[in-house]
Task: inverse folding
């Protein structure tokens, strides 16, 4: 039986191998939720970059540029990091270059995997079905917050582990702990995540609407996959 | 209000400051449980060292030498890492040099804190009372397993956070997640931790008796504190 494992923070990635694995990158609030929303609304590709200036440089190549720092949209950028911005009809067929505090860095640390896919509550079941078809060992990488473990990404990891239990064996205690947390959370996901430090930190930024939306399970069926540095579906 | 925070792995210690804080080092299976048991049975001091050869060298200075690697006692050492070995009457008044896979390394990374104390389920309430008296910011450091997060140390952290909730505010999502896990676990702590990868890994080493003992809450009142490199009570 193949294994499923969870890396709770990008700062623990040195402990996990990615070679031959299906890696699922998760940054529920809000990078991967926004990516999934964008693809569900017809975006043709998202180019994740680590640095602000590299993102800005993509404007000249015809990309829309998108990103946040400390939870706020970068002033001269086309888009921030709220999933509601990724529903606009004018995004259909467009390419977006995206930089975020945590999500992009998690993708960068996953390079070398058999495949890198983007997970969120919004596409939970689609991701699970994709992973069952791929049938590789799985590593879920939680983007966290500046290296620290966060609640929302861990609970998502637990939800995905829960969906795949029985088909994959657990790699260490992290998937077990994540699944327990999901069990605590699933009766009232929004109430549970309202306690998280990220929600409190972004309280002033209309995070509650975003958070409620990001907690919608299986709204979309898209599974973004990284191909030659570009996320596509 | 002072804060309580949890570092889920020694490999995340670069994200946390220790200066001015009361640091609680926890390695439930089995280093800190054995330390607490030893002090409760009259051991006069425990000298934690990282390397096997440094531990062995302490023999010439009159120390008993103790330690494990991969969960097994080092063959030429006086003691291993089972708490039952730390109950022997002949240990009264003795000094022990101890090296373990994970616990000692967590102590080494805590140097510079206002105080470093040793926590286990065995002395949970005594540790909580000590921390309330000290009234510093608190950082609980889980020893984990070779850098990975483990279930038993995280659940202990959650139990201690639970005891101190209301008196200290939570520093990030890690204490919140740990407290949720403790809430899941507390009805059947042994059953919950039986699932942990460490228990499965050490299955052949009579870990079950050790584990049951290490899950005994408030058996002892001793609070080991590090003074000039030596743990004392």
Result:
């Amino acid at each position: 039986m193949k294994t499923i494992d969870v890396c709770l923070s990008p700062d623990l990635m040195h402990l996990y191998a990615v070679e031959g694995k299906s890696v699922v990158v998760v940054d529920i609030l809000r990078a991967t939720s926004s990516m999934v929303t964008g693809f569900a609304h017809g975006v043709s590709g998202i180019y994740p970059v680590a640095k602000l200036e590299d993102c800005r440089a993509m404007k000249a190549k015809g990309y829309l540029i998108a990103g946040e720092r400390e939870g706020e949209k970068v002033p001269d950028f086309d888009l921030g990091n709220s999933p509601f911005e990724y529903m606009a009809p004018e995004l259909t067929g467009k390419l977006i270059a995206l930089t975020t505090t945590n999500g992009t860095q998690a993708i960068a640390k996953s390079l070398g995997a058999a495949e890198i896919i983007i997970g969120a509550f919004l596409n939970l079941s689609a991701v699970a079905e994709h992973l069952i078809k791929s049938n590789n060992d799985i590593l879920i990488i939680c983007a966290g917050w500046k290296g620290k473990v966060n609640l929302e990404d861990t609970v998502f990891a637990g939800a995905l582990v829960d969906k795949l239990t029985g088909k994959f064996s657990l790699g260490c205690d992290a998937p077990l702990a994540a699944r327990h947390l999901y069990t605590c959370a699933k009766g009232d996901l929004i109430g549970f995540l309202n306690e998280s430090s990220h929600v409190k930190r972004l309280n002033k930024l209309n995070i509650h609407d975003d958070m409620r939306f990001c907690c919608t399970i299986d709204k979309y069926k898209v599974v973004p996959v990284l191909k030659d540095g570009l996320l596509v579906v």
User: Anything to note?
Assistant: Chain B has a mean pLDDT of 94. The radius of gyration of chain B is 16 Å.
